[in-house]
Hints:
Layout: H1 5-14, E1 16-18, H2 21-29, E2 34-37, E3 40-43, H3 51-86, H4 89-92, H5 97-104, H6 110-119
Parallel strand pairs: 1-3
Antiparallel strand pairs: 2-3
Amino acid sequence: MNLNKNDYIRLLNKTHFISFRPITWILNKFNMGAITFGIIVFIDKDLKGSVGTILHELVHVQQYYNYWFVGFIPVYLYHFFRGWIVTSFHDAYMCVPFEIEAYGYRDGSFERVYNEWRYV
Ligand SMILES: [Zn+2]
């Protein structure tokens, strides 16, 4: 995936970052700090300053656009449960191509875009 500055702004403007304690509490129980459903990102309050986490979740938002909600969820779960057979629950998500893409995605220019967007 290749995202540019305009993509980042578009994704940031469409995405709702929600720090809802009951949900982030459950996420923490699974060693997760954030989870994305379409344009909704439930995220630990403390992680809103984590540029790497924000970028990771924005890659997921774009994946939802590419695959649509009805495509993303089944493909994600298929690979997750297939991975769970050969590894552990906690490692299974790294068998999901969406995660491999999101974890592999790097762009040093994102931090400046995010901070400008965040503090305007
Ligand atoms: Zn992810």
